Fold histidine kinase.
Amino acid sequence: MDGSKNSKYYEKEYTLKEIFDAIPLPLFYKDTEGRYLGVNRAFGEFFGQPAEDLKGKTVFDIGREDFARVYYEKDSELFNNPGTQLYQSKFKDNKGNVHDVIFNKATFKNRKGEIAGIVGVVQDITERMKAEREVNEKQRQLETLMSNLPGMVYRCLNDFDWSMIFVSGGSSNLTGYSPSELEENRVVSYGNIIHPEDRGSVWEEVQRSIKENDNFVVKYRIITKDGQIKWVWEQGVLVGRNTEGIDVLEGYITDITESKKYEDEIYTYKIFMDDAPDAVFWTRKDGSFAYVNKTAADRLGYPRDKLLEMTIFDIDTELDEKAWKSIWEEVDNNRNVTIERRHKKSDGTFMPVEVSVRNIEYAGEMLHGSFIRDITQRKKEEEERRILNEQLNQNSKLEAIGRLAGGIAHDFNNMLSVIMNYAELGVLQTDKTDKFHEYFDEIGKAARSSAEITNQLLSFSRKQRGFPRVLNYNDTLKNIINMLNKVVGENIRLEWRSEEELWYVKIDPSQISQILTNLCVNARDAIGQEGRIVIETRNAHVDENYCNTNMNCKPGDYVMLSVSDNGSGMSKEIQEKIFEPFFTTKKNGEGTGIGMATVYGVVKQNGGFINIYSEPGLGTTFKVYLPRQKEVDTQMDVKAGKVEGNGERIMLVEDEPSVLAVSSKMLEKMNYDVITTISASEAMEKAKQYLNRNESIDLLITDVVMPEMNGKELASKLSKIHPGMKTLFISGYPKSYITDKEISENQIYFLQKPFTAELLSNKINEVLNDGNK
């Protein structure tokens, strides 16, 4: 071979080597023994060794044995079946990194046509495999997600059949059709399972949204494979066009049958709630309102949209967040809670309400459903009942105190009779120059003053009737107004305002004086230094509504007498006790506590009632109501004169020895023949003795209340023994005690203890000279 030929040969070999090294994929060729005859630069770099160092080596020399064994076996397969070979395997580089690779091999022949070795390309697919694994994992996750969704994901054409390109596995549960049955309309088109009544509206809504480049959301009905009708909710979007120019849609469809049913029920419930007579609130945990009915808005005086912008704290201004949290927890624990609150209305007033609360779930949110009842009327009735109960308790207490006062007065009167009568005897039997004469006189005065107190007690107990007559308040006031001016003092202005055509009342004139004097004294003491007292009289009609809250009155016509002052006023506690005997706010020794009790007793005794209007610092008004009388009395007062006896025989029956002794002495002083007896049985026995001696008894003077037999029974029995005998009843109790025992007032003579000798002598003379009794 000459030089030029050698030069061309080497040039050609060099060029081939450069081309071989320039190829970026690892290339190799090896002989039938597996020894590398040549590798390119990329192969050396891939294995981490210079290409020249790999010549003559086998895979066992340059790689991990387990991998080399695979390569060797694959080479053997190729030699046994010459041709091409493609397979995927692993490879570990000199840094220890394992690669995913593809070997693409082929056998080659020598000039003799014999298999001379293998030539191959190594392709590193590690990154591609990694990407594929990531894609597969994402695909798996997506498929898992779609299969777990309560509905189906789809890709479809925007045609009237909604021809499905892809459908997720959820279609089976939703429609009864598998994805393969829906895709490409193999069994049925999705458009055909939409309810016929809804197909048009669904198509129009989707086309409208596409035209406006917006997502579409539709609710409609479908007919499942087994014939069920379901409500579905669908959301989708236009994603592009296919090769045929048809719009492609992607979206999601889910079953809302139950929620639609619940939504319809809620809608019906709301309609029903709007017509409910009670207010209804659905309240969130933060206190905002999810729903309020029409009644709630009307009751509170707000437009409904305005009320929905408010919170529970706006209408229940006494509720703070801590209390609200407590109520919420209580409802959670007990399910149903009923409480009373006050809700603020738009005009600023408050309305008492009863709130019944329970948990409700709405649109996936836990709320408090509250039924709110206006209890204004109920609270009013409860307050009226409370007032009536207080009045009843007060009346019962005053009745009990009255009975006690009457009993005390009776006992006092017996004792005062002894003191007063002995004092009178002492005065009669001593000379005026005798110091004891003065002592007896002072004792008598003290006894008479004490008798006034017992009379006031009897007025409170309504047993002291007096001498009632039909009269005009104004006429009586004219006579006592000057006296009242002196009572209240110069620093207090007394005003009198009267109605001209005033109706008549029936009452003892002295009791009017008692009422006004005590009320004016009370007003004077409340004023202190300077002030004003107003006395007013006017006609008044009291109706049933008024009496419903004032149990002490009856409907009808009344004459009202009021006494008002601008003094210190009274607390509620004082008002509750003001009419109790001996109750006083004055210092010790400044008052007896009998005056207001007397007023109460006199008013009650005459069929009337009295009300107090007072607040601390704002003065007080007492209003006395007495029943109207339409007939005027014409009877005249008759005064008896003092008369001595003429030896008439009097039987005196008294179970109190001291009263018996002093009374008998007084009668003897008056020139009467006195038979003293300490009991009814003794009186009966002595009456029989006198009858047996043919001696008559002219007059029986007997106590009313005695242990063995009361005075009425004794008088009845003695009148059978001595038919001509007349009777005079005496008692520490008032005359009404006797007349209440089924005896008319005009059928008896009565003298209340304590009495003076003059009163006794006049009364005896009156009885003895009466031809009827």
Remarks:
- The first strand starts at residue 27 and ends at 31.
- The longest helix spans residues 376-428.
- The mean pLDDT is 82.
- DSSP finds 27 helices and 27 strands in the chain.
